[in-house]
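Service request form, structural biology core

Requester: graduate student, group of Dr. S.
Request type: structure prediction, single chain
Budget code: on file
Notes: please return the result as structure tokens.

Sequence provided:
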Amino acid sequence: MLFHLRQIVPFERIATVTWDALVSVRDTLNQAIEHEQASTLDDALFLTLQHVKTDANRDIARRLAQVEKTVTCTPETVLPALVLAAAWYMIMPHEKPISPAEMPLIILALYLLNP
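Core staff response, request fulfilled:
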């Protein structure tokens, strides 16, 4: 018998997980596991807790890589949207440095005019 996804999990019930929620869960789990590790006298239990902590952190790190972090930027003055986009694009962290050859021409021009 085939089931459609809507029959199994209605889309109204699917909630998106935010960056902040994942960080909060990670921190809470780490604190709880470290508390239990500090109170245990059994080496095997300590190592098992360490493995659980490592696996949980690895899983949450994978999930964090898939979730976008929302940043709120408020401009100091009224500027055209294109100028704001170029300025914010330049100050946001990137995985690798952006060379001028990789930048769209308009962003490069705006950056050179207003470094």
